[in-house]
Specification:
Layout (H helix, E strand, L loop, with lengths): L4 H14 L5 H12 L9 H14 L3 H13 L3 E3 L11 E3 L2
Parallel strand pairs: 1-2
Helix pairs in contact: 1-2, 3-4
């Protein structure tokens, strides 16, 4: 997982708070629960150049492209809810 994913988690939780799906306390609790998961973090510096190339070639944001670049580099599945990735990677697992 790219290091910046923590900020993306925080941003998603902020969206849930703004839309009244979660209260602030619940959002902080959710972030703590995420922190307990065994994620392997990867420095974004190493992902920047491949992510830029993917973003330009495929029309993704550089943030989204970083996930794809990491999945490719690790020869790992990319598991996402984001339909923007459909058809872009043979090891994609698109969650509904």
């Amino acid at each position: 997982m790219p290091e910046f994913a923590w900020v993306e988690f925080a941003n998603a939780l902020r969206g849930f708070v703004r839309s009244d799906v979660l209260g602030s306390a619940q959002a902080f609790e959710a972030l703590e629960l995420l922190a307990d998961l065994p994620f392997e973090l990867h420095p974004t510096r190493e992902l920047a150049a491949p992510a830029l190339g993917i973003a330009i070639d495929l029309g993704l944001t550089a943030y989204d492209a970083a996930y794809l670049a990491l999945a490719r580099a690790l020869d790992a599945p990319l598991i996402t809810f984001d339909a923007d990735f459909a058809g872009l990677y043979d090891r994609l697992e698109l969650l509904a």
